[in-house]
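Please, structure for the following, as tokens.
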Amino acid sequence: MKQLLDRDTWIEIFQSIRKNKLRTFLTMIGVFIGIYIYIGLSGAAKGLDNGFEKEFESVARNSMFVWAQTTSMPYSGFKTGRQIQLKLRDVEVLKKQNPEIMALAPRNVRGIFGADPGLITRGLKSGNYSVFGDFPDFTKIATKRIYDGGRFINDDDIEQERKVCVIGERTQKELFDEDEEPIGGYIVIDGVSFQVVGVHKFAGGGPFDNDSDIFIPFTTYRKLYNTGDDVSWFTIAAYDDADVVKVEENIKATLRRIHRVDPKDERAIGSFNLGEAFNRIFGFSRGLTFLSLIVGVATILAGVIGIGNILLISVKERTKELGVRRAMGATPSEVRNQIIIESLVLTMLAGIIGIILGAATLKMIDSLTQGGDFPYTNPTVPIPLVVGSLLLMIVLGILIGLIPAQRAVSIRPIDALREE
């Protein structure tokens, strides 16, 4: 420690660096590139994680969507091409036979899947918007951010078949005046008056949602559009510890049994497993982080070995100088520490430059991706990983410095003084 704080030690180190500027620079490139790659790839992986978490922050991680299609195989007396229709009674069977289900919300809609959108009017203003029939359980799967003073559909709305609705923020702007309070106001949905009880901020509750969506109670929807117990699709969330792929398979198998579909008919029941998509994305991100670690460490190691080789050459060139120092009373530990400190300085200097430039690159990428459609946000590297990489460079710098340091210590003063 005393030698590390000694002014003469640092003067000697920087004199050695200045004497061989090009060689020192080329030697440091390996370590610099290694840490730069590590910071860049790790940050990119984190940005991807953050982007998808933000994009689907309001949706349960283990969620999926299941809907009915047409059969592709004859079964139990039914011909191929039969249209399957999901029913409200399917809910209890699904929950009973699939205990991994955390929440299940039947949904109906007008405005997508080929159905005409609802005609919404308010005074002289009108527009066509998607109208959803929903249960309160939907918010357990896809959180709806309701502006202050409002609420979403509740159990009383379902039981009493209330004519209430939650409108989107774009719907509010198009049907209400700027200074007008929408909560408590009325809109007309396909000829029926509904009271507005909430305004939702669009946050992406699934692949079918929009910032102008209108939500009404499921029971009110079926009376309005005479859909009976028909269900367009189920939005389902499994428990966090459940295997979402297995849950999806079990749910589809249950629906095939309920609706008398061949167990091998994969086309009759359609689905989209958001949980599986999440797992793939985060698996890719973890793989990218691991790859950055392997590539970064390998490149850093190669760079550090290069520093060790250069220091061996430096020791050979300074044989006479080292001999004079030994003859004047320098101890072997002082000579050894001098070389190790020099190795550590070169390694740390290259590493710190790599970290700074890597962070600057991530900052630039973040600014370029702001406001884009690609889900990419705040590509940063956690501080523990940066500290870990610095500690790794310290350890490698010391270890690789031991080789030239031992070579310097092994030089006998009398032999060094004879060196020409």
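The longest helix spans residues 274-317. The first strand starts at residue 63 and ends at 68.
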